[in-house]
């Protein structure tokens, strides 16, 4: 989807003045791109209608840079469509916060329950309890117990008891008596919505009286997820959505459709199988991501949580001023290593494409090599890689025990990333999205 948008936008940028017909034409292309990405038809219609009205109204035609202006409208509208502002979880310190996870089988309820418990334990110093109410698969209880043990978070479960409502009741009782301040109920799912399951969920809801009912939706599903979300919302009046598996290739389709259709906010996104792979949902960042502008801010946030504040501020400045050089790069390599896969970070960078990512792949053995190459450069070369000519490349390769091709690949990859960062130099976008995690 974001490739499609990038093509549309590239065409737009080349144009000088836009007329009404141009706008209709671009709008038609946007519509096609969204429909192809399996975004709900009604959503697409409303979206392109809003854009058309605003664009033809005045903003674009009278502007000096109509192409840019139009792109801005598309991004604004998409941000609005995704919920506009960021929505935080409802949690109150000093009271018992009760969360209930619901969703289809395999959506990621159990994993996400553990992720949230872990996140709030770390960031809010909460003492969480997980309650296993999925009694239909013995493996499901075990799964939660394993996750709890891994995270040192208590789990309430009953084996050989097929009474999810009773378990919920006793889990809540334990939580109250032992003063947990967050209790998360993991529930069963089905491959499709069925009445018996819904009945059970309604009863659990009545029993535990949750402060948040979080619908977990597999972000890789398209339109279908809208019907599911609708049904869960109708019967349970959910309080928010969590989109999982947003680390995959198909991003955005479900996000766009769900918020618009059920009018409930997406609160978090799951971005991988690891228990730290969870992020707040930022509508404007997601809009940028879908539109292919990348997401340098999420990148910085993720990097930030691994670094001390001072360093992070410096890095952020440098990103913004496009002042980031190979010295900084080297500095980050080690820290970045501890964050796991670098490509997941690079994917968030503006305009990231597969080719550039390959060039920048620093995982595993490559890291050592990259380090060696950079260390073989002079300080000045690291600051201005542009001055490194052919003979210096040879010398650097020799000095680092690599081939000239390796040096070239590193420099090219670095250069491409810098170009990507440049695309993101609009300070308004950068400032607007800048927020701390809860
Ligand atoms: P449940 O049936 O709704 O409880 O789903 P689970 O929590 O058991 O998750 C189903 C599968 O999806 C597991 O293999 C998880 O590791 C995986 N999963 C969950 N969230 C994410 C995510 O954000 N990204 C990826 N890649 N996998 C996820
Ligand atoms: Mg489960």
UniProtKB/TrEMBL annotation:
InterPro entries named in the record: AAA+_ATPase, P-loop_NTPase, Signal_recog_part_SRP54_M_sf, Signal_recog_particl_SRP54_hlx, Signal_recog_particle_SRP54_M, SRP, SRP54, SRP54_GTPase_dom
CDD domains: SRP_G
Positions of the SRP54-type proteins GTP-binding domain: 96-292
Domain note: Composed of three domains: the N-terminal N domain, which is responsible for interactions with the ribosome, the central G domain, which binds GTP, and the C-terminal M domain, which binds the RNA and the signal sequence of the RNC.
Subunit and partners: Part of the signal recognition particle protein translocation system, which is composed of SRP and FtsY.
Enzyme Commission numbers on file: 3.6.5.4
Function noted in UniProt: Involved in targeting and insertion of nascent membrane proteins into the cytoplasmic membrane. Binds to the hydrophobic signal sequence of the ribosome-nascent chain (RNC) as it emerges from the ribosomes. The SRP-RNC complex is then targeted to the cytoplasmic membrane where it interacts with the SRP receptor FtsY.
Protein name: Signal recognition particle protein
Start and end residues of each AAA+ ATPase domain: 95-243
């Amino acid at each position: 989807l974001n490739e499609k948008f990038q093509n549309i936008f590239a065409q737009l940028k080349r144009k000088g003045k836009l007329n009404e017909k141009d706008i209709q034409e671009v709008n038609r292309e946007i519509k096609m791109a969204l429909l192809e990405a399996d975004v709900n038809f009604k959503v697409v219609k409303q979206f392109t209608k809003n854009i058309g009205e605003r664009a033809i109204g005045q903003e674009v035609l009278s502007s000096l840079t109509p192409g840019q202006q139009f792109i801005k409208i598309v991004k604004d509208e998409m941000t609005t469509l995704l919920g506009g502002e960021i929505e935080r979880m409802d949690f109150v310190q000093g009271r018992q916060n009760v969360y209930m996870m619901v969703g289809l089988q395999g959506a990621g309820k159990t994993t996400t329950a553990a992720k949230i418990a872990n996140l709030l334990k770390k960031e809010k110093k909460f003492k969480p309890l997980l309650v296993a109410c999925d009694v239909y698969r013995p493996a499901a209880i075990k799964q939660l117990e394993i996750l709890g043990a891994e995270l040192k978070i208590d789990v309430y479960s009953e084996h050989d008891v097929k009474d999810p409502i009773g378990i919920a009741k006793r889990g809540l009782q334990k939580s109250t008596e032992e003063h947990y301040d967050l209790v998360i109920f993991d529930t069963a799912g089905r491959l499709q919505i069925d009445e018996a399951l819904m009945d059970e969920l309604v009863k659990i809801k009545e029993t535990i009286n949750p402060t948040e009912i979080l619908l977990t939706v597999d972000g890789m599903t398209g339109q279908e997820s809208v019907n599911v979300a609708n049904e869960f919302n109708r019967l349970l009046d959910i309080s928010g959505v969590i989109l999982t598996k947003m680390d995959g290739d198909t991003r955005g389709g479900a996000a766009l459709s769900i918020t618009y259709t059920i009018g409930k906010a997406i609160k978090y996104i799951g971005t991988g199988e690891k228990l730290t792979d969870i992020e707040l949902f930022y509508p404007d960042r997601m809009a940028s991501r879908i539109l292919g502008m990348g997401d340098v801010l999420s990148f910085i946030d993720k990097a930030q949580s691994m670094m001390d504040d001072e360093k992070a501020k410096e890095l952020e400045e440098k990103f913004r001023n496009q002042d980031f050089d190979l010295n900084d790069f080297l500095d980050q390599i080690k820290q970045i290593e501890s964050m796991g896969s670098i490509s997941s970070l690079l994917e968030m960078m503006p305009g990231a494409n597969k080719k550039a990512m390959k060039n920048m792949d620093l995982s595993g053995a490559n890291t050592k090599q990259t380090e060696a190459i950079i260390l073989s450069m002079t300080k000045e070369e690291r600051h201005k890689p542009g001055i490194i000519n052919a003979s210096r490349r040879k010398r650097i390769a020799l000095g680092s025990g690599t081939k000239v091709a390796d040096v070239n690949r590193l420099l090219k990859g670095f250069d491409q990333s810098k170009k990507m960062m440049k695309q993101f130099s609009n300070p308004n976008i950068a400032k607007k999205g800048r927020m701390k995690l809860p």
